[in-house]
C-alpha cells in the first residue's frame, strides 16, 4: 500500500526570530486569468441552460420590464390577457395571442406586491404596493384610452401584501396587518379581522364559496377564514414558512401552499389539518 503525505518545510514560511518579518510567498509566474478554466466552464454551462430555456416547449418571451417581475395575474374571463407587476412599481397588461403589451402603468413607488382582477365583470383590477397604496383601475380606460391614472386610490395605514377578489363579486379582500374586505370606490373596509400580531403576507379567496379565504402568516402558519365568523375556522402551523397559496381551479375544496422547504403541500378543506 502506498501512502502520499503532503508536507512542507517550516523554514520556508516561518521567520527565524521574533524581530524579523513573516515571509510572504509569491508566485511570479501567475497566468493573466487564474480562473480562466472555471470562467469558460461557467459560460458553457450558462449557454447550455439558455439553449434549454429557449428550446421547445418555449413559446415566446414578453420583453419590456426594466426591473424584475414581482407578480403575475391572469384575467378570469380572457385567457389571453395577463397582468405583470415589477419591482420598480410598473404594471403591464399583455396580450398573449399577439404577444404585445397593451398598456404600461407607473402604478406604485416601489415594488408591486399583488394584482387581482374583478371576478364579476372582468372590467376592473386592483393593485397594491410597497408604498401602502391601494389603487383601483378600469381596464377599458387603461387599454383603449391609454389613461395613466387610477379610477380610485386609497392610502392605507400599513403595507398591503396581497389582494384577491371574492367569487362572483366585485368586492375584494386584502391582507397585511389584518384581513380586510373592501367594496369598490369605498374609502374604508367593510369588515376587518385582526388575527394577531404576525403579518399576513398572502391570501386567496375561494373561487366558489365567496365567504372562504385562505392565507399565510409570518409565524409559519396557514389559516382558513370564513368572513361570516370572527375567528379562523382552522389554523395549521407548518415546519417552514409558507410563501404563497392558491386554490385548485377544478376542485375548489383543496388548495396548494408553496413552502420555504422547496415543496408544495396540498390541503383539503374538510380535513385541512392533514396534508397528502
From TrEMBL:
Listed InterPro entries: WD40/YVTN_repeat-like_dom_sf, WD40_repeat_CS, WD40_repeat_dom_sf, WD40_rpt, WD_repeat_DCAF13/WDSOF1
A GO cellular component entry from the record: small-subunit processome
WD repeat locations: 62-104, 105-141
Pfam families assigned to the protein according to its UniProt record, in alphabetical order: WD40
Highest taxon above the source species: Eukaryota
GO biological processes: maturation of SSU-rRNA from tricistronic rRNA transcript (SSU-rRNA, 5.8S rRNA, LSU-rRNA)
Keywords of the record: Repeat, WD repeat
Name by which UniProt lists this protein: Uncharacterized protein
